[in-house]
Design a protein that fits this description.
This protein has 181 residues and is an all-alpha fold. The protein is built from three helices and no strands. Helix 2 (28-162) runs antiparallel to helix 3. The longest helix has 135 residues, at 28-162. It is found in: Cell membrane; Endomembrane system.
Length: 181
């Protein structure tokens, strides 16, 4: 037991010289040296490693946010352009429909005008034909009358020249009528 007492006594002395931390197995001088070294390493890492890494991460985050914002803006622009394209297509279809209706209306008006003009020309041709036929008919009637007159004169002359009988004058009259037919 004396050895045990000696050990206890040594431990008590060590506690008195190192303080209360010595009982935990901590040497205060070494602890302070390690604390100073840790602080220096921490400051060096803070200054040359942590700040640049944090700055790099912030820059990267800003780029990602900017890219997302640009993508959202592009998406909005694409939607806007699609709506504008649909609007332009709709307007173009409407204008094409209006132009088509106008062309059809103009074509119908032109067709009616051409039909009326053709009817008028046909009417004029028919009228001219009738006028020409009437003129030819009148000319033929005049010629026929003239021939009848000439035949009548010729018959009368023959009748008077021959002083013929009634029978002969009847035959001559029938002959003249046959010639006229």
């Amino acid at each position: 037991m004396s050895q045990e007492v000696a050990l206890i006594h040594e431990a008590a002395e060590a506690v008195e010289t190192t303080g209360g931390l010595g009982t935990l197995g901590i040497n205060v001088k070494i602890f302070l040296a390690q604390l100073v070294n840790f602080t220096i390493v921490l400051l060096v890492l803070w200054r040359w490693a942590y700040r640049p890494i944090v700055k790099l991460l912030e820059d990267r985050q800003k780029k990602v946010e900017k890219s997302l914002q640009d993508a959202a803006d592009i998406e909005k622009r694409v939607v806007s352009l699609e709506e504008e394209r649909k609007s332009i297509l709709s307007q173009a279809k409407h204008e094409a429909h209006v132009v088509l209706e106008k062309v059809q209306t103009d074509a119908e008006v032109r067709r009616v005008e051409l039909l009326a003009k053709a009817k008028e020309e046909v009417s004029q041709v028919v009228h001219q034909g009738k006028v020409q036929l009437q003129a030819e008919k009148e000319a033929m009637l005049r010629e026929t009358r003239q021939e009848i007159v000439n035949l009548a004169i010729e018959s009368a002359r023959k009748i008077l020249e021959e002083s013929i009988s009634e029978k002969k004058s009847q035959a001559l009259a029938e002959e003249v009528i046959e010639k006229m037919s």
